[in-house]
């Protein structure tokens, strides 16, 4: 059975009236293509995350893949049952025609917030979080997808801060030739791989690059290249990055080398898989040298 056959819609009977089904407790975050709420499911009394996609923006994005039978965000997200990936319980259409996803609501902080605040909560935990994210991304790749938006904004801690989880499959696509052609430059510019911004053909290694930039920032609170606020920020990513030791001299050399292998601009030299990355750091116990 092919992957697209496995992804046939499982929307269930009818459409969901969001206002009747859910008590919206608060709007947690608004993205460019969706709104996300902390909500109570009146059917189960469970507090969940409720994501509602903007129909017009979703249609505009999916028009890039006309004729390719691209799976929806819900069809992709619901496949994953991994300790470091946010669990999606249900997906479908609202009575107003918008796609929705019901998922676990994480009470912990997002990595982006921790980095902005320079929160010391990361101290001594970076290696563990980096491993967890690497394992999550490895699972995404093993399932045959490219996430396309690995960045601190899409990494969230559980309430007990023991686990960092990957979320948001809004830009994800199958890792098959029709979806890896040049031209689709979606993502977050500061974390974009050079082949993506230069409109070359892509593969799962663009996620490895974004992961490497995220891990670098987790360790240093800095980026390997000048930070920017527009797509132009990614135009420098084909140049050599700043050595991570410049920002964190005490980092373990093995971890430093593993991160630099991920952010290698030359695809032929870049770390090829998340499994390879995890093997490189397998014996490490601490993020810094003893």
Task: Explain what the structure shows.
There is one protein chain. The chain is α+β, with helices and mostly antiparallel strands. 28% of the residues lie in helices and 16% in strands. The strands form three sheets. It has a five-stranded antiparallel β-sheet. A two-stranded antiparallel ribbon has the order 6-9. A two-stranded antiparallel sheet has the order 7-8. A hairpin with a 4-residue loop joins strand 2 and strand 3. The N and C termini lie far apart (50 Å).
Task: Put the structure in a nutshell.
Helix content is 28%, strand content 16%. By secondary structure, it is α+β, with helices and mostly antiparallel strands.
What would the principal axes of the Cα set say about the shape? globular
Helix content: 25-40%
What is the CATH domain class of the largest domain?
Mainly Alpha
Major sheet, described briefly?
5 strands, antiparallel
Q: List low-confidence stretches.
A: 4-13
CATH topology-level name of the largest domain:
Transferase(Phosphotransferase), domain 1
CATH architecture of the largest domain: Orthogonal Bundle
Oligomer: single chain
What letter string, H or E per element, gives the SSE order?
HHEEEHHEEHHEEEEHHHH
Distance between the termini: 50 Å
Strand content: 15-25%
Our count of domains comes out at 2
Radius of gyration, Cα only, in angstroms? Answer: 19 Å
- Helix and strand composition category: alpha+beta
The strand order across the widest sheet is: 1-2-3-5-4
